[in-house]
Structures are given as structure tokens and as C-alpha cells.
Amino acid sequence: MQQLDVTFTALGDITRRAIIAKLAEGETALSTLAEPFDMSQTAVSKHVRVLSEAGLVFVEKRGRSRHCRLNATPMKEAIEWLTDYETFWNDNFASLARHFDKKKKDIEK
């Protein structure tokens, strides 16, 4: 459960989710990763550090640059946890639909 907390906390920020989306396209240098954001490379580095500490991003230093790549394993664990609740919600929505269908039939009588 602790890993889930760390994963959800890291993904709770819109900038970090955007970084994850970019890294899903492939490995990239940190400087390139920072380009589309309206913030300093230092600020982007801080977001990458949070993602790295959550195990969502691997950072490798190559010469003077740092390269980042996605590690989706923690997200897979989060998806598996969320999937456990899919049946709950599907059952509740089906029950709600049956309730409305019954109400509609009662009104039509």
C-alpha cells in the first residue's frame, strides 16, 4: 500500500503527469523534456526527482546530460488496485439504471 501512496502522490500533479506522458513516447534528455514547460529546467528537475523517487522514472547521467525514461511498473500496480473496484462501480451503475427503469415504468402507468 505504501508504494500506491507514493505513486498516486507523484501522479497527483499535472506537470508530473505531462512528464510521464512525454516519457511514454520514449527516453529523452532532461533538457529536451523541460522545453515545453513554462518553468525553469531546475523546476522540471524537481518534478523528475519526485517521479524518480516514486520509481516511475529512471534517470541516467551520460556525460554532462541526464536522460530520463519511464518505468510504468508502479502504474501497473495502481491500475490493478483500481481494477478491483471496477466491479463495484459497474454493479452500482447497473443497479442505478434498474432503479431508474423501474421509476420510469411506474410513471408511465
Concise synopsis of the structure shown:
This protein is α+β, with helices and mostly antiparallel strands. Helix content is 66%, strand content 13%.
Number of strand segments: 3
The CATH topology? Arc Repressor Mutant, subunit A
Shape: elongated
Helix content: 55-70%
N-to-C SSE series? HHEHHEEHH
Give the spatial strand order of the biggest sheet: 1-3-2
Low-confidence stretches: none
The value of Rg in angstroms is 21 Å
CATH class: Mainly Alpha
Secondary-structure-derived class: alpha+beta
Largest sheet: 3 strands, antiparallel
Mean pLDDT: 91
State the CATH architecture. Orthogonal Bundle
Provide a descriptive summary of the structure in words.
- With 109 residues, the chain is an alpha+beta fold.
- The protein has a single domain, classed as Winged helix-like DNA-binding domain superfamily/Winged helix DNA-binding domain (Arc Repressor Mutant, subunit A).
- The chain is built from six helices and three strands.
- A three-stranded antiparallel sheet has the order 1-3-2.
- A hairpin with a 2-residue loop joins β2 and β3.
- α1 packs across α5 and α2 packs across α4.
- The longest helix is centred in the last third of the chain and has 23 residues.
- It is elongated and about 75 Å long.
- It starts with a helix and ends with a helix.
- The model has no long low-confidence stretch (mean pLDDT 91).
